[in-house]
Amino acid sequence: MKELIEYIAKALVDHPEEVSVKQNGGNRARIELSVAKEDMGRVIGKGGKVANSIRTLLRVAAEKQGKQATLDVSEPK
After folding, report:
1. Of the candidates 3, 53, 59, 65, which lies 20 to 30 Å from 26 by C-alpha distance?
2. Is 1 or 76 the better-scoring residue by pLDDT?
3. Domain span at residue 33?
């Protein structure tokens, strides 16, 4: 699941080298996505539509594996 989020995020942003994905947990995974400050708008989208679409894809991928997953988009450092 981590690889899926990383692949999608790198395809969306201008600075793919700054994409960072961390995964915590087993059957109930929490995935944290961090991108460059300039790319936050691309990952979140208008009204959060892009982020919600990524979350939907993540839930489907997790469900196929019999797990649950959530995505948090964190502020860049």
Report:
1. 53
2. 1
3. 2-74
